[in-house]
UniProtKB/TrEMBL annotation:
<comment type="function">
    <text>Removes the pyruvyl group from chorismate, with concomitant aromatization of the ring, to provide 4-hydroxybenzoate (4HB) for the ubiquinone pathway.</text>
</comment>
<comment type="pathway">
    <text>Cofactor biosynthesis; ubiquinone biosynthesis.</text>
</comment>
<dbReference type="GO" id="GO:0042866">
    <property type="term" value="P:pyruvate biosynthetic process"/>
</dbReference>
<feature type="binding site">
    <location>
        <position position="160"/>
    </location>
    <ligand>
        <name>substrate</name>
    </ligand>
</feature>
<dbReference type="InterPro" id="IPR028978">
    <property type="entry name" value="Chorismate_lyase_/UTRA_dom_sf"/>
</dbReference>
<feature type="binding site">
    <location>
        <position position="38"/>
    </location>
    <ligand>
        <name>substrate</name>
    </ligand>
</feature>
<protein>
    <recommendedName>
        <fullName>Chorismate pyruvate-lyase</fullName>
        <ecNumber>4.1.3.40</ecNumber>
    </recommendedName>
</protein>
<dbReference type="GO" id="GO:0006744">
    <property type="term" value="P:ubiquinone biosynthetic process"/>
</dbReference>
<comment type="subunit">
    <text>Monomer.</text>
</comment>
<dbReference type="GO" id="GO:0005829">
    <property type="term" value="C:cytosol"/>
</dbReference>
<feature type="binding site">
    <location>
        <position position="81"/>
    </location>
    <ligand>
        <name>substrate</name>
    </ligand>
</feature>
<keyword id="KW-0963">Cytoplasm</keyword>
<keyword id="KW-0456">Lyase</keyword>
<keyword id="KW-0831">Ubiquinone biosynthesis</keyword>
<dbReference type="GO" id="GO:0008813">
    <property type="term" value="F:chorismate lyase activity"/>
</dbReference>
<dbReference type="Pfam" id="PF04345">
    <property type="entry name" value="Chor_lyase"/>
</dbReference>
<dbReference type="InterPro" id="IPR007440">
    <property type="entry name" value="Chorismate--pyruvate_lyase"/>
</dbReference>
Amino acid sequence: MDETLFTSQPIHWLAENDKNDKIVPANILDWLLELGSMTKRFEQHSQQVTVIPYLECYVSQDKLSADEVQSLPKSQRYWVREVVMYGDGIPWLLGRTVIPEETLTDDDQQLVDIGRMPLGRYLFSRDSLTRDYIHIGSCANRWVRCSRLRLSDKPLLLTEIFLPESPAYR
């Protein structure tokens, strides 16, 4: 995936017991551990939240990171969507969604066609959404979180890098 928005620098994931305000400032930890829609959270800090897709395509497993491979079931193909999320035209977040093809059944096939719709607007409108975990880490002096979510008990992985202008840092 040479065309990725995501940095080639490694993400340093924190151990579960490091999720405290001695390591991560309390205001940032509150954002990283948000259980609801990040889109809705951003909407509380701006007039308009927009998403610009950068990459949307199917890839084979060898195009995923080791963390992604470990976190998702084996599949022939994975739908990858990378976006920049803006608040009032200011880039606040990089998002990368990786979805095994087997997750994209029934109504959830719509995920490949959401275009400029924020992922959270789609996911959090579903009654069948659950979250397995949130991992937090850092990369190039930016805070990162990764969630494995389930739609109708089928997994997808969402990694979010909070950009410097994000309200998470205020």
